[in-house]
Automatic annotation (TrEMBL):
Any one Gene Ontology BP term: negative regulation of defense response to insect
Gene3D superfamilies named in the record: B-lactam Antibiotic, Isopenicillin N Synthase, Chain (2.60.120.330)
Family: Belongs to the iron/ascorbate-dependent oxidoreductase family.
InterPro entries in the cross-refs: DIOX_N, IPNS-like_FE2OG_OXY, IPNS-like_sf, Oxoglu/Fe-dep_dioxygenase_dom, Plant_2OG-oxidoreductases
Catalytic activity: jasmonate + 2-oxoglutarate + O2 = (1R,2R)-12-hydroxyjasmonate + succinate + CO2
Protein name: Fe2OG dioxygenase domain-containing protein
Pfam families associated with the record: 2OG-FeII_Oxy, DIOX_N
Keyword Oxidoreductase in annotation: yes
Domain Fe2OG dioxygenase: 209-310
Gene designation per UniProt: LOC100814471
An example molecular function term from Gene Ontology annotations: L-ascorbic acid binding
Length: 361
C-alpha cells in the first residue's frame, strides 16, 4: 500500500444487485442504464455462429512431439488472433469444476446477513462486493461478486473466505492448486511460442512467487437486459485469466475488431485469456483483449475468474529478448501493485488503461 495516501472508501451506500433483481419487476434504476453506444445489441448478426478457438490440451508436452507441437501452434495462433481461447483435456477434474461453481452459487443464495459479514471495501476489494471503482455517481454494472486472494501465501486469509457453505474453503483450496498447475503449463507454452526458453515468461512473473486471486461473479436476472451490462468492457489487468463460465447460461462477449462475439462454452472447458501484464512482458506480441458480459431476464449466471498474476512488487516491463532496434520497448517498467491501484480507482474502462502506459515517443 502506498504510504500517506488517503484510504478510499465507497463514495455511496452499496446496493446489492441481487436484492434489486428480487424487487425489480419491469424496470431498472437509472444508475444501471448504459449510454446507448455501450448497450448490447439485440439484433442478430453474421457473427452469431462465431466462437473463440477450442484447444484440446491432451498431449501438450507429452511423449509425441508432433502432437505437442501442433497444440503449441494452436495456442500461438489463438493468442495472436483472439487473445482468448477455450481449453479442454486440461487435467482439472470436471467434478471439481462443478463443485467449485455450485459451492459459490450456494454462497450467493445464502441470506443477505450472512453475505454482508464479508462486505468489502475498496481498500483491498477482498470479500463480497457490488461495484468496481470509487467514482461518485458512476454508472454501475448489473452484478455482485466475491473477491479473494489465493497467493502469495501472506495474502491468503481464510477469515476473508466464506465460512459457509462449509465446503467452500476446502473446495477452493483444491481448485486453486489445480489452476496454478494448469497456468504454469500454459505459461511454458506461451514462453516457447514467443521464441523464448520455457521458463522466461514465468521468471518475468517473479518465478514461483506469483500472485493468484479469484473473482466469483454473480449476475442476477435483469428485467431490462437490453439497457445494461453485467460487466462493462474491460481487459484483465493481471497476467492470465482462467474463467470457469456458467454451465447453462452464456453471457461473455469478446471483442473481435468492431464486433462482439458471444462465447459458446464447451463442456468442462476453461476460457483462457491474456491480461495486460502479458501484453507488457511480450512487448505487445500478445495483446489483452476487451470483453464484457451481457445479462438476461430469466436466468442468473455464475462465473469464476481465476487471475494468475506476476509477483506484485517487481518491475514488469518487456522481456529483454523481445526488445530489438526494430521493435523497441513499448512500455516503461511498472509494478503490478502500482498498476492495480490505478485500475481500482477507476473501474472498468475498455483498454484505455494499458494503452495509457505506452512510453511517449
Ligand atoms: C472478469 C470477467 C467474465 C464472465 O471477471 O474479469 O471478465 O463471464 N468475467 O463473468
Ligand atoms: Ni475479465
Amino acid at each position: 500500500m502506498l504510504k500517506n495516501q488517503p484510504q478510499p472508501d465507497w463514495p455511496e451506500p452499496i446496493v446489492r444487485v441481487q436484492s434489486l433483481s428480487e424487487n425489480c419487476i419491469d424496470s431498472i434504476p437509472e444508475r444501471y442504464i448504459k449510454p446507448s453506444t455501450d448497450r448490447p445489441s439485440i439484433r442478430s448478426s453474421n457473427f452469431d455462429d462465431a466462437n473463440i478457438p477450442i484447444i484440446d490440451l491432451g498431449g501438450l508436452f507429452g511423449a509425441d512431439q508432433r502432437v505437442s507441437d501442433s497444440i503449441l501452434r494452436q495456442i500461438s495462433e489463438a493468442c495472436k488472433e483472439w487473445g482468448f481461447f477455450q481449453v479442454t483435456n486440461h487435467g482439472v477434474s470436471p467434478d471439481l469444476m462443478d463443485k467449485a461453481r455450485e459451492t459459490w452459487r450456494q454462497f450467493f443464495h445464502m441470506p443477505m446477513e450472512v453475505k454482508q459479514q464479508y462486505a468489502n471495501s475498496p481498500k483491498t476489494y477482498e470479500g463480497y462486493g457490488s461495484r468496481l471503482g470509487i467514482e461518485k455517481g458512476a454508472i454501475l454494472d448489473w452484478s455482485d461478486y466475491y473477491f479473494l486472494h489465493y497467493l502469495p501465501l501472506p495474502l491468503k486469509d481464510y477469515n476473508k473466505w466464506p465460512a459457509s457453505p462449509p465446503s467452500c474453503r476446502k473446495v477452493f483450496d483444491e481448485y486453486g492448486r489445480e489452476l496454478v498447475k494448469l497456468c504454469g503449463r500454459l505459461m511454458k507454452a506461451l514462453s516457447i511460442n514467443l521464441g523464448l526458453d520455457e521458463k522466461i515468461l514465468q521468471n518475468g512473473f517473479g518465478g514461483e512467487d506469483i500472485g493468484a486471486c479469484l473473482r466469483v461473479n454473480f449476475y442476477p436476472k435483469c428485467p431490462r437486459p437490453e439497457l445494461t451490462l453485467g460487466l462493462s468492457s474491460h481487459s484483465d489487468p493481471g497476467g492470465m485469466t482462467m474463467l470457469l463460465p456458467d454451465d447453462q447460461v452464456p453471457g461473455l462477449q469478446v471483442r473481435k475488431c468492431d464486433n462482439w462475439i458471444t462465447v459458446k462454452p464447451a463442456r468442462h472447458a476453461f476460457i483462457v485469456n491474456i491480461g495486460d501484464q502479458i501484453q507488457v512482458l511480450s512487448n505487445a506480441i500478445y495483446k489483452s483483449v476487451e470483453h464484457r458480459v451481457i445479462v438476461n431476464s430469466d436466468k442468473e449466471r455464475v462465473s469464476l475468474a481465476f487471475f494468475y498474476n506476476p509477483k506484485s512488487d517487481i518491475p514488469i516491463e518487456p522481456i529483454k529478448e523481445l526488445v530489438t532496434p526494430e521493435k523497441p520497448s513499448l512500455y516503461p517498467a511498472m509494478t503490478f501493485d502500482e498498476y492495480r491501484l490505478f485500475i481500482r480507482m477507476r473501474g472498468p474502462r475498455g483498454k484505455s488503461q494499458v494503452e495509457s502506459l505506452k512510453s511517449p515517443r
